[in-house]
Amino acid sequence: MKDIGSLPITPDFDLWPVTATPQIARAEQNALCIEWSDGRISRYHPFLLAENDPSPETLHPLSRETTLSPLDLPDDLAVTSAAIEAGGAVVVGWSHGRTESRFHPGWLLGNGWFGDRPDQGNAILWTAEEQSKPPTFDGPTALSDPKLFLSWLLALRDYGVARLENLPDQDGLLMRILDRIGPVRESNFGRMYTLEIKDDPDSNAFTSDALLQHIDMPTRECPHGLQFLFCRENTSLGGEGVYADAYRIAADLAVEEPEHFEALCEIEWTYNNRSKTSDYRAAGPVIERTESGRVTGIRYNTWLRAPLVASLEDQDRAYRSYRAFAARAQSPKYQMRFAYRPGDLLAFDNRRALHGRNGYDAAGGVRFIEGVYSDRDDLHSAIRSLERSLSQEMTA
Ligand SMILES: [Fe+2]
Fold this sequence. Notes:
The chain is an alpha+beta fold. It folds into two domains: 22-110, NE0471 N-terminal domain-like (2-Layer Sandwich), CATH 3.30.2020.30; 136-387, Double-stranded beta-helix. The chain has helices at 46-51, 105-110, 139-144, 146-159, 173-179, 246-256, 258-266, 312-329, 376-395; strands spanning 22-28, 31-36, 41-44, 79-84, 90-94, 101-103, 136-138, 161-165, 193-195, 211-214, 226-234, 237-238, 241-245, 268-272, 281-285, 287-289, 295-298, 335-338, 345-349, 353-357, 360-361, 367-374. It has a six-stranded mixed beta sheet with strand order 7-8-19-11-22-9. A four-stranded antiparallel beta sheet has the order 10-20-13-18. It is globular. Residues 205, 214, 216, 355 line the site of fe (ii) ion (FE2).
């Protein structure tokens, strides 16, 4: 082992806990190989190591982004030696006379390949029986306690729907909460919209009618990832929210009606908005999945579908599978139902949690709900950043 030294910086601002320590480091043909204290072994390509070398020659010390082009490295670059410092940093020697590099062991561990990494997200799937109400947190406490705020965000990520309650009726509060997550993503309904009854509605949402379960913005190349509905006042009768976990519907279809599941993954529907002042169109399958089969998004909205231009055989397949999906979306088995109470802020994953509502009596009271959109990336970034700062606080 070499001398004890402080651990090198990493090519990012993340935290890299050293949950296992390197025991043996050696140069192999075309790789650095590390055997870890937990018995696992990982290998790193010379190009990967070189372009993540934290030395100031290859990494901008402020931005922590590499300054290298892939072609700056020799084609036959090789690791020629490897050693472990007493402090745990791994020192790599190079061919072509390159200066030695030092790597943080937590970064190497966190970026190690240890066999097949399962392609699964954090989603916790639910039916109405398993989850009768959204995970709910006290709003004022969450706004003053970063740990509880993080819990709300994690619930939103994992369940696809999460609620703050008891928030005060304040102008601008919704935007101030959004500021803590990420930028608002505007739409043809504006930066923020109010769910109200319009004389000349450009969406069924702006009527008092019941709304079938749907996602918003299926007319966009990438529909908005998150939606936030802040109920500031509600004395109307009816209008309860009806939510369903479309990932759960997809999972059940895959097992119980596989032919419909496959059709829903394959056949692309086009969606177009019906507005006199805009004309958005986009196409995609109802169920979006990765190559390994993980469901990553839903594009489902009954009243924004354009006519399907397809062979008769495909029309039949498309409609039968769409009806199979609708039968579940409209089944009480999957429907979480609850009233919008003043002070409630509903946050949901617009590409996963179908939302709808019962009709309401427009003449019987006031209903004031503000809405904004954002994206999943903003949520995930906010979660990682908050976890990082809370972890730093704990170790400070
Ligand atoms: Fe909607």
